[in-house]
From TrEMBL:
SUPFAM superfamilies tied to this protein: FAS1 domain
Species: Podilymbus podiceps (Pied-billed grebe)
Taxonomic lineage: Eukaryota, Metazoa, Chordata, Craniata, Vertebrata
GO molecular function: cell adhesion molecule binding
Name of the featured protein: BGH3 protein
Annotated GO CC locations: extracellular matrix; extracellular space
Amino acid sequence: IVTVNCARLLKADHHATNGVVHVIDKVIATTTNSIQHIIETEESLETLRAAVAASDLNSLLESEGQYTLLAPTNEAFEKIPRETLNRILGDPEALRDLLNHHILKSAMCAEAIIAGLTMETLEGTTLDVGCSGEELTLNGKPIIANKDVLATNGVVHFVNELLIPDSAKTLFELAQESEVSKSTDLFRQAGLSSHLT
């Protein structure tokens, strides 16, 4: 699937005497803002703005290149426990891993994302894309709230859930989500859960 500034190419290569015409499905608007500028001006990305500033990713997101930012909204940050959020925000390494897990190495418009695709993030991890009815899903969840916000250096999709990579989780959080959750309970009962957090 070919896109031009996120407009889908419907018919290609109509040859004329003075050139070639390609038919697309929408009018292409002028794009003047970088991904960083979109973060700075969008009210629903206030928490993300603070996180990006704290992790020194500003320069990357305003530099030349072609990235896809899966931008967690304020609502996405509010869904995770306050204690977990504060821990990640206070740990520069975990915060950078978290944010890099939301950035893809290439610009991917929603039209061009095919279900069943595995996409690589800047962190080196992967995200699985699928579909649920009309909606795209990431790792099995239909969490893309607003798609195809174009920037001079890529595209932004707003997501309403945080995608937390394993590298930004404590041992306790990882264990709770896995098949060793009963062992975690035993650690807690023995008063040893602090070692896992």
